[in-house]
Amino acid sequence: MHFRPSLPSDLPRLLPLIAPDAAGGPTAETYTTRLRAGEYRPGRTWIAEDDASDGTLLALAVWWGDPDAAPEADLPEALDGLYVHESVRSAADRTALAAGLLTAAHTAFAEAGASNPPEYHLSLPGDWHERPDTVEAVAWRQEAARRAGLPVSLERLRYEWTPYTALPAPAGRLRFTPEPDDEVFVDLFRRVLKDTLDTDSRKEAESVGAEAQARGDVDFYRDTMPGDRSWWRVARTPDGEAIGFGLPSRNHASPVVGYLGVLPEHRGHAYVDDILTEITRILVAETDPEKVRADTDLTNTPMAAAFERVGYRNDARRLVLSAH
């Protein structure tokens, strides 16, 4: 079996592998659209080629990356899809083939400078645990990812707000002010890490420290996410005391609730509803969206409840497989 990045000439052969599947992943149409946009690239798409036959493609892995990344810095950021040819029927064989493909790609990414293999994101129905076909489709992919260095799983709830849902009227308890000084947001990010229920933030802070984590978050939302820095807001009481903050943002697909936090000493008063409403209001005013998307950990029940109260609908789940 030969594992390699695809070439432009492979496109007619690899598209038939991108078949509808219970575990989600991009469709062939989505793949070609994102290929034209630069989000997918031949070098970010790896194939397993059968040496013993006429070169039949038996497996395919599709990674997403920054469409603006220069070729010399072209490291993928997330695995979007993993496919195995229908002729590979048993779950054991599918798992072994997919694990070999991912391992080969991860090795190449590490040699190119990646510190960890990219996360694998599976977009799934909200009731996927009750769907045997989806459970089966996820199981062999998850085991293949585990063997290839992605043993940690995190399930997240995906929420969506549309303009058909009216936003709650502002409660009037807080005022929201722009803040041009990044250091103010670094301080706020650092302070909300205390007792946070956000798994990624907590793990990163444990790894690098709260200060470095806070600076990394500010850098990420300012420099990597395509949302506008001027949308960021500090939430204050009428007398000026900081309560928390909200970062409206967007990704390459839609406006998103980037980040929001309430300072530990002010939790328990439903200020999260006020901040989430303001984030959504800004995104409506600035982007005229068809929808606003947001995620939270399955275990973060207070945040999930806030989304429901403000009018967001839980329409899917996202399973994230990672190295740590």
Automatic annotation (TrEMBL):
<dbReference type="InterPro" id="IPR000182">
    <property type="entry name" value="GNAT_dom"/>
</dbReference>
<feature type="domain" description="N-acetyltransferase">
    <location>
        <begin position="192"/>
        <end position="324"/>
    </location>
</feature>
<protein>
    <submittedName>
        <fullName>N-acetyltransferase</fullName>
    </submittedName>
</protein>
<dbReference type="InterPro" id="IPR016181">
    <property type="entry name" value="Acyl_CoA_acyltransferase"/>
</dbReference>
<dbReference type="GO" id="GO:0016747">
    <property type="term" value="F:acyltransferase activity, transferring groups other than amino-acyl groups"/>
</dbReference>
